[in-house]
Amino acid sequence: MKKITVSLLMAGSFLLGFQLHAQTTFLTNGLIAYYPFQGNANDATGNNHNAAVYYAILTNNQFGLPDTAYYFSGAYIEVTNTIGFPASTNDFTVSLWVNFAQLNPGSPGSQFQILFCGRSYDSFQLDINTSSGTNAPIDLFTGATEDNPNDLTTATVAWTLNNWYNLQIIRSQNNLAIYRNAQLIGQTVATHTNAAAGQNLDFGARLSGPGSDFPLAGALTDIRIYNRALSPQEVAQLYEFESGQTTGIVSLPCITFLGVTGALYTIQYSTNLSETNWSVLVSNVVLQPDSYLYTDTNAFGQPQRFYRVIPQ
Question: Could you give the CA distance from residue 60 to residue 262 in angstroms, rounded to a whole number?
């Protein structure tokens, strides 16, 4: 937990303090592999799930930083040490960023583009169905086979070429869900058991003998694999964190202050310390016995807020 302690001079003669707690534990809780692709395909968690790169080329990530993503065009990246990766009916989350350079409908071998897959056919696979070009659904297989239907096909959504998107794929017990940029685009009840335990995991193509098929025409970065299901709030937090939309506080600020037991206080906030007009967050706060904890549930997804507490 990240903790920032600040002191503020309040109205009157009271000098009070409060603490802002930024809950960032969701980033690492249950994280078994993380590939930020910062010059290589190593696992940044230290769990030794390092990947090998086959013909993929380093490129810019969603922030435009060089050598922090891999571009695929008939290339792939392979993880051979997949101990602890999603298997059976275990909960999991896979989060990644993808940038499609081409979504061509109907061309042989390219009506699907593989984002990731296990070695067994359709045992554990995420792809985009490009039959309709840039209006395309996402397919998820987690235990299905070539002769059985995929587990989840999302709604058809529009994609802009050369634009970055965050996809989060979640299994919570038998419930599957796919989010794009923190928005739910598909969910269902799982009907298959993931049989990919112990198999290699590939990004950017599915290996077929000496070659590969259904290659991704685009880039990937910031691939995270968790051994648990992220909550909807964590999905949004992770998206905001990796898209750079969050300023200052990653999650909900918790304001703790000390004062006189039984006295009334008002908590105010502003998004600009140079402003003279502060907004009332909550009033008639009574300290019992001598401290108060308040969580600003409206701060999530908003610009950075500054707080002050004044006696009434």
Answer: 56
